[in-house]
Amino acid sequence: MIKYHRMNNTNIFDVVNEYVNYYNNYENGCWTKEKAYKRIHQIMNMDDSLCYLQYDDDKLVGFVMSYYKEFDDLKALYIEEIVVFKEYQNKGYGKQMMNHIEKEAINSGVEHIELLSVNDEHHKHFYESLDYYSAANLLLMGKHFK
């Protein structure tokens, strides 16, 4: 049975361990527990954050970190990160988590959801299957110093 728990200072350590394991083993990351804790803790403690852990029975299968954004003409939700751990991918958990966060957002008066995604066919297919679209009016800009 799928359950969702708000991320908090007690269960954050479950996420940290899985975060480091997932990104270092499957995404070529170099995360430490300290850096992962800082990143997750920052987002979890932002004003208007909305962060959930997803469990199947008692097994943590993924999480979502997001926060509300106010604009002059609407309230939006920005999804900072959504992760379904490797062994649970392609089993419907991601769609269920997105449906959960969307319902929560709509109930809070959100009119728009934004997110950045890896630019590959897998991610594009996933988000398009949930009726997300590429924003033609935005351009991701960056500057790297190393």
Detailed description of the structure:
The chain has 146 residues and is an alpha+beta fold. Helix content is 34%, strand content 27%. Strands 1-2-3-4-5 form a 5-stranded mixed sheet, with helices on both faces. It is globular, with a radius of gyration of 15 Å. The N and C termini lie far apart (46 Å). The model has no long low-confidence stretch (mean pLDDT 95).
List the helices and strands and how they pair.
Layout: E1 2-6, H1 12-26, H2 33-44, E2 49-56, E3 59-70, E4 75-84, H3 93-107, E5 112-115, H4 121-128
Parallel strand pairs: 4-5
Antiparallel strand pairs: 1-2, 2-3, 3-4
Helix pairs in contact: 1-2
Number of helices: 4
Radius of gyration: 15 Å
Q: Assess the beta-strand content as a share of residues.
A: 25-35%
The major sheet is characterized as:
5 strands, mixed
Shape: globular
Main sheet: strand order: 1-2-3-4-5
Tell me how many strands there are. Answer: 5
* Distance between the first and last residues' Cα: 46 Å
Helix content: 25-40%
The H/E string reads EHHEEEHEH
Derived structural class: alpha+beta
Mean pLDDT across all amino acids: 95
State the low-pLDDT regions, or none.
none
Salient structural properties:
alpha+beta; 146 residues; globular; 5-stranded mixed beta sheet
Give a quick summary of the entry.
34% of the residues lie in helices and 27% in strands.
